[in-house]
Amino acid sequence: MKVGLFVPCYVDQFYPKVAIATLELLEKQGLTVGVPPRQTCCGQPMANSGFEHLTGGCNSLFIENFAQYDYVVSPSGSCVLHLKEHLHDPKHEAEAGHLRERIFELTEFLTDVLKLDTVSARFPYRVGLHQSCHGQRGLHLSQMSELVAPPFSKPVQLLSQVDGLELIDLDRPDECCGFGGTFCVLEEAVSAKMGKDRVSDHLRHGAEYITGADMSCLMHLEGLLHRQKSPVKVVHIAEILNSNIQ
Fold this sequence. Notes:
246 residues, alpha/beta, Rossmann fold, 4-stranded parallel sheet
């Protein structure tokens, strides 16, 4: 199995350790992982702002970089969902269709494709899980609380296997953090208030760390925690699953 690692641009620029943790985690599963050096943005920021017609170059380059792989994996649910729904190229539509079906967010790849049932990691802290909207409502990584249906969560399934980790319960387990990509720029006051509410839920229940599958949401929460001078830290789920803290 040849796996291509897609590193979102904001991860590359601000949180490269998340990409490194994802690479190491995949390699620990015995996979051959490639990281195309010419990869760039998936085009989501433009599309979300109403300029999807300007993403053609991003789409073409993505196909050029990843068409050779059996699967593409990324530590970002929002980028993965965008590519699943919007990756098209009139000149290479067959390759685009193949990639739309073979790109996975990290936790869904580990649970659905690799069927991982044992995680060799240790993280002895109280952790709150932020279930991002794109992952939950778009990729169905976890069940939405408003539905009358059996609950499930692929991130929880993996975190529950981490030695020493105590996953806290939240009052509103699937509430939006308010980031929303360009939403946090266009509606900054609303975005900040939503983020403060999300942070407060974790703080009330004694979280030492907040984790999730989207570093963009965690970046938003990290900024609010920093402004509140809170000791609580954010950490991507890939870093937890790849950790061995004694």
